[in-house]
Amino acid sequence: xxxxxxxxxxxxxxxxxxRPVGFALMLALMAAAPVSLLMFFTELGIRPDVMTAMRxxxxxxxxxxxxALAIAAIAVSLHLSRPEASLRGFGWVLLIxxxxxxxxxxxxxxxxxxxxxMTRLMGNNSRMCMTAIPLLSLPILAxxxxxxxxxxxxxxxxxxAIAGMLSAGLAATLYASHCTxxxxxxxxxxxxxxxxxxxxxxxxxxxxxxxx
Length: 212
Description:
With about 210 residues, this protein is an all-alpha fold. It is built from 8 helices and no strands. The two termini are about 30 Å apart.
C-alpha cells in the first residue's frame, strides 16, 4: 500500500469513528426524553393560561434562553468528545443564552412595572423551579453521558459539566411551559441556579463515567 492510499484509509477510518458520537448522543437523548416527558406531564403539565401567555414576549424569551443553552451545550459536548479538543475558542457559544437573558432584563427594566423588582425576582415558583428542573434533567443527563461515552474526552469532568448544561437546558424548556413566572429576573436567578446544580452533578458523574 502506498503512502497516499494509507493516508486516505486512515482519514476514512477516523471519519467513520467520529460519526457515532453524535449519532449515539442523539439516540440516547431520544431514549431519555420520554422519561422526562412522562415525569413532566404526570407531576406538572402545561400551565392552563398558555395561549394567553404566548402573547407575552417574556414567556417566549424563556424558551429562547433554554433552547439556546441546550443547543450550545450539545455543540460543545460533541466538540469535547474528541481527545484533542479543549474549550478554548469554542466556549463562547455558551454565552449566547446569557446574552439573551441580559437583553431581556434590560427590556423589562425599561417597561413600566406594576411589581417591585424583588417580587419579580423571587416569583411564586422558586422552590418548584429548583426542584423540577434538576429532577427532569436526570434522565436526560444519564442519556447524554451514555451517548458521550462513545467519544474520548480529554477532560471528562468538563465534558460531564457541559452534558449537565445540555440536560438542564432541555429540562428547563419543559418546565418553562408550566412555570407562571415569566420575568427575565426570575429566569436569570432560579433557572440559572438549577442549571448550576445539574452542571455540578454532570461534572461529578462525568469525571467517573467519561474516563477512557
